[in-house]
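Posting this for the archive.
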Amino acid sequence: MKKLTMLMLLAAMMILAACSSDKEKEAVESEKMQEQDTSESKEDTASVDKGLFNVEVTIPASMFEGENIDDAVAEAEAEGIKATKNDDGSVTYKMSKAQHKEMLAEMKQGITEAIEEMKTSEEYVSIQDVTFNDSLTEFTMIVDKAAYENSMDAFATFTLGFGGMMYQIYDGAKPEDNKVKIMVQDKETEEVFDETVFPDDMNE
C-alpha cells in the first residue's frame, strides 16, 4: 500500500504543479489558449469516486511517466487492489473503504513526519510547532516571530500547502473546494501575524 500511496502523492504533486503553471500562463495567453489549457488540464487530473462500499481512484496516463503501467497495475493487484488500465492510458484503482482509509492515513503520516522534521531541522530555525485540523485544510505554524521574519522559514508553508492539497485530492475534494489555509502564530503573544491560502495566494 505504501508504494501505491507514494505514486499517488507524486501524481498529485505533478497535478498541483501543473495547475500552478497554468495559472501563471493565464496572464499572457489569449482566451483561446486558456480554454485549450483548461481542456488539457482536465485530462491530466486525478479523480476519486466514492461508492457505497468501494472507492475508485483514477490516475491519468501522464502521471506514470518513467514507470511501467503494467508493473504499477501488477503491484496494486498484489496488494489486493483491483487495477484497470483504461483505453486512454489512465489507471483506475478500485479499493475498499478500509483500503482507501489506510491510504489516506499513510498520506497523513507522511505529512506528520515532514512536520516533525521541520521542528527539529536546523533549516527552519524559527518553527517551534505546527498544528493542523483532521482534514488538513488548516495549519498553524507556531514560531519565534523575530527569528521567522529574519529567515526564509516562510518556505515551509509550501510543504504544508501542497501536502494538504494532495491529501484533499485523494479524499475526493472538488477542485474548487481544495484550499489550505496556513496561519503563522507568534509563540509568545499567540498573535497570528501572517496567513496564506493555497492555491489562491500562489497566483498573486
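The chain has two domains: 2-100, 109-203. Helices lie at 2-26, 31-43, 69-78, 97-120, 145-149, 156-170.
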